[in-house]
């Protein structure tokens, strides 16, 4: 269990903060904007109103003892840089900051931030890579040209079993293995190939990328 | 080779446009802002100044014949929705739109957009999942709080079997299932729990997120 401070509760920062909390860590979520702080109540350990460029505030909150910091401030570039410099002076072991543009990113690297993220452009590149494989809702590469993909069950699969559809093994019709099925919020690993699929089910399929690309849409 | 129109050349849109062009597709990149259009010269097939809520403009540019559209407009929600509705009326086979908040996303789904992306919050969730474990290289969500992660075998696991390590089943020590092992460029699904792991192996682990989080780093 680690202690993390997340500064800036926009879409990126609140996403990081909530997820870290759900993963079991202690999350201090800070923002100058009261409404944003309020909306994090119950979703993080400790939502607090404050300005991260204020060294006293950070010290009073015990930030120097934290394991990591995520600076998710967006458009206020000087503020973002100043907060990162303060965190560096406090010797926070691991600092991640999001950059708004190229120059912002270079500046953050120069001041010693451990990891710089450009969330929008990184997601843009990711989208470009799976735009024409719409069934590959999510993709995780296992090896070059071999991966795992999450596929929403199309209408024509409903009420049929994996065996009937040709998914009983990688030697069957589609050349893919179904490693798991998600139904509602439950995940069944190594599913029964005679079970009938239902509308809304998601299949976790593993196999060669070119075979994943041939799934029906 | 496909024809794609990317509307909105902010960080997300320009990332998508450039990558698609680099992947070999024909990219029409549109924005109302001339400077942004100019900066895409040479990075996409055809950067054009225009307003995507103008049906005439879209038709004159041949957009109805395109294979896909990406609406990467950010803060102008009505504009984003209107552009998507126009694209739907033109029967574009595949439309992806980025949403600025939850309600925007729901609206886009309701009007029939094929895929809605929340780039910042999705990157935030991703960051949270690998913040403390550089070994957890990739993460794929199977269900809320349940996922699959690719983990590089740390030195202390080398020469030990999955059984010895506590990975023989989700009821074992780590509470995780090893769905596959990658060794070199080969992937073995449903691996033998008595096989000894080697340096450089990658494990595909499935289970509750908080348990994935407890893996050694
Ligand atoms: N010095 C600061 N201390 C604390 N919070 C700050 C500071 N400066 C900015 N913030 C907060 O950071 C948050 C994110 O910044 P902003 O909204 O400018 O970025 P954004 O690019 O829209 O973010 P996102 O893309 O993550 O939604 C805002 O809620 C803002 O109030
Ligand atoms: N109707 C429209 N037609 C074409 N382009 C548009 C239209 N409306 C907005 N845009 C453009 O969309 C781009 C992205 O929008 P905006 O800058 O509001 O979003 P953003 O959230 O900052 O984007 P990003 O996070 O991708 O950087 C802008 O360059 C803007 O000029």
Description:
The structure is a homodimer of 217-residue chains. Chain A has 217 residues and is α/β, with parallel strands linked by helices. Chain A folds into two domains: 3-123, NAD(P)-binding Rossmann-like Domain (Rossmann fold); 132-212, Alpha-Beta Plaits (2-Layer Sandwich). Chain A has eight helices and eleven strands. The mean pLDDT of chain A is 94. Chains A and B meet through helix 1, helix 6, strand 7, strand 8 and strand 9 of A and helix 1, helix 6, strand 7, strand 8 and strand 9 of B. Residues 7-13, 30-33, 36, 51-53, 72-76, 79, 83 of chain B line the site of one adenosine-5'-triphosphate.
CATH level-3 fold name of the largest domain in chain A: Rossmann fold
- Distance from first to last alpha carbon of chain A: 42 Å
Strands of the widest sheet of chain A, in order across it, are: 3-2-1-4-5-6
Oligomer designation? homodimer
Radius of gyration of CA atoms of chain A, rounded to a whole number: 22 Å
Measured by DSSP, the beta-strand proportion of chain A falls in 25-35%
CATH architectural grouping of the largest domain in chain A: 3-Layer(aba) Sandwich
Biggest pleated-sheet summary of chain A: 6 strands, parallel
Would you identify the regions of chain A where 5 or more consecutive residues have pLDDT less than 50?
A: none
What is the averaged pLDDT score of chain A? 94
Number of helices of chain A: 8
What is the count of distinct domains of chain A?
Answer: 2
Structural class designation of chain A? alpha/beta
- Measured as a percent range, the helix fraction of chain A is 25-40%
**Biggest interface and which pair forms it?**
A-B, 63 and 65 residues
The shape of chain A, in one word, is elongated
Bound molecules: adenosine-5'-triphosphate
The ordered H/E elements of chain A are: EHEHEHEHEHEHEEHEEEH
Number of strands of chain A: 11
